[in-house]
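Long-time lurker, first post. I've been practising inverse folding by hand and with some scripts of my own, and I keep getting stuck on stretches where the structure tokens seem ambiguous. Below is the full token string for one chain I'm working on. Before anyone asks, I'm not after the true native sequence, just a reasonable design that respects the backbone. If someone could post their per-position residues I'd love to compare against what I wrote down in my notebook.
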């Protein structure tokens, strides 16, 4: 046995000294690498996306890995515009926040026919992936699911990172689970049918990501901004998969946004519009320029309920803790400098008062922030069914792989 290992070591040394021979073998084995790889990486961004199981590309023909059964949960409006991404039984949900209800989740639980080896595919915007992911997390104590977001909000934010939830009358995302999809497929071509109003709503999330990353991502072409936003959020979620620390920077603008959505009864203020208003409030509290948010907001038709309107929901719902709250506080994120985001607990009463009076003369005092855009080393692992190596095309780095770990 020693002789065999010694001979193998000698071959490795020979290959290291003979680059031409090494490259010849690499090229000859490339078809095998392509066959067994779960993903391919050309640069650091590709590595991050591969580690998170995120693909930014045209819709693949083999969307569902493995041989198990699959069922599709799809936004009924999206099915009028695009063919289903998988040949499977289809369950429809209404568009928007109407999908994120207990009634919709219960209907899906009752209608699903999958076993523990099945895969649920979510096809629609952020609300569709939220409810479908939550149903997948709870059906039969958890089954695999795949996210295929079709809106800008979904592609740059909602479908990435494993957060799933439904709403209650008392607040947004109050019932949910961390259940990372085995695969997230982002096809920017699906945005071609997106109405301009919804695209601008998605741009609010792009501006948020750009402010956190210190890059003017909102000025990029759609395909590029989708990719850069997906990379940023994937890296942050890999580092903090359960929202215990650095990931809370993504709360920027959302403490206010969720309060506004709840106060409007999830009807007159959509998530993108609420995020635009929430970013304005957070940036003003941080003493930062608001020009990028103003440009997005000017293109959105935002109608807020008035306190005097008898149809407006009670204002007490605006102060209900969100999914990022604990111990009677919600997490508030402010910007000190680009790429330096401070996240600190804010008492629910204080967040309510800020929503009611969004312009304060002095910024609130926030704790120091930790860097928020590197991969958390203990979680930078594949979230897929297999542990097969990632094929690193364009280089001779064959053999490097992304090892399997328990999904977050």
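-- Answer (accepted) --
I ran through it position by position. Result:
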């Amino acid at each position: 046995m020693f002789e065999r290992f010694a001979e193998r070591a000698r071959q490795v040394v020979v290959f290291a000294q003979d680059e031409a021979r090494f490259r010849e073998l690499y090229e000859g084995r490339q078809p095998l690498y392509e066959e067994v790889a779960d993903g391919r990486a050309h640069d650091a961004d590709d590595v991050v996306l591969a580690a998170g199981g995120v693909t930014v590309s045209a819709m693949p023909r083999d969307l569902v890995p493995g041989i198990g059964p699959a069922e599709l949960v799809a936004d009924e409006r999206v099915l009028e515009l695009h063919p289903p991404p998988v040949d499977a039984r289809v369950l429809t949900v209404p568009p928007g926040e109407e999908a994120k209800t207990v009634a919709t989740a219960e209907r899906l639980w009752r209608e699903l026919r999958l076993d523990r080896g099945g895969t649920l595919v979510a096809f629609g915007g952020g609300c569709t992936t939220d409810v479908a992911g939550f149903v997948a997390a709870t059906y039969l104590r958890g089954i695999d699911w795949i996210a295929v977001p079709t809106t800008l909000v979904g592609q740059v934010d909602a479908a990435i990172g494993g957060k799933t939830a439904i709403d209650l009358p008392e607040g947004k995302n109050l019932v949910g689970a961390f259940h990372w999809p085995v695969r997230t497929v982002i096809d920017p071509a699906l945005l071609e049918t997106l109405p301009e109003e919804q695209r601008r709503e998605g741009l609010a999330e792009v501006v948020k990501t750009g402010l956190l990353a210190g890059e003017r991502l909102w000025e990029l072409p759609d395909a590029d901004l989708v990719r850069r936003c997906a990379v940023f959020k994937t890296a942050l979620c890999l580092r903090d998969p359960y929202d215990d620390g650095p990931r809370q920077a993504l709360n920027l603008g959302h403490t206010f946004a969720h309060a506004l959505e709840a106060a409007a009864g999830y009807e007159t203020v959509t998530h993108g519009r609420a995020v635009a208003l929430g970013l304005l409030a957070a940036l003003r509290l941080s003493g930062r320029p608001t020009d990028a948010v103003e440009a997005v907001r000017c293109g959105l038709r935002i109608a807020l309920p008035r306190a005097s309107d008898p149809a407006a929901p009670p204002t007490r719902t605006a102060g209900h803790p969100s999914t990022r709250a604990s111990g009677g506080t919600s997490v508030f994120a402010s910007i000190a400098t680009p790429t330096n985001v401070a996240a600190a607990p804010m008492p629910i009463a204080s967040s309510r008062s800020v929503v009611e009076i969004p312009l304060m003369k002095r910024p609130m005092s926030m704790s120091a922030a930790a860097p928020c855009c590197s991969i958390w080393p203990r979680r930078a692992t594949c979230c897929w069914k297999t542990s097969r190596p990632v094929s690193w095309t364009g280089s001779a780095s064959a053999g490097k792989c992304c090892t399997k770990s328990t999904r977050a």
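A couple of notes from the structure itself: The longest helix spans residues 19-36. The mean pLDDT is 77. Happy to go over any region you disagree with.
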